[in-house]
Design goal:
Elements lengths: L1 E3 L5 E3 L7 H9 L1 H6 L5 H15 L5 H22 L12
Antiparallel strand pairs: 1-2
Length: about 90
């Protein structure tokens, strides 16, 4: 398994790996692989689409509603931070 965080850090994980040495050798070879990596525009486009599709998947109506509601609450919280007086319950959570 591998991943890349929002700030750009990357990681590789091997869990209960029966061939740890082989996995470690592969991990150690990654910098050389990346230094020599070449891809044409079509291949890179496929990589980008694959990456974004993992991040930005379609939501069903229930999840769309949840996200909209959470977004509205976040907007209220941010707006309250700009008010010179404390927010009350009807204005959003302080």
């Amino acid at each position: 398994m591998s991943g890349i965080g929002r700030s750009g850090e990357g990681y590789f994980v091997s869990y209960r790996d029966p061939e740890v040495k082989k996995s470690d050798d592969i991990y150690l070879g990654i910098p050389a692989y990346l230094e020599n990596f070449e891809a044409d525009e079509r291949t890179m486009t496929k990589y980008v689409i694959g990456t974004i599709s993992d991040i930005d998947t379609p939501l069903n109506p229930s999840l769309q509603g949840r996200d909209a509601e959470e977004g509205a609450r976040g907007d209220l919280k941010r707006d309250c931070g700009r008010h010179p007086r404390p927010c009350t319950d009807h204005e959003g959570d302080p």
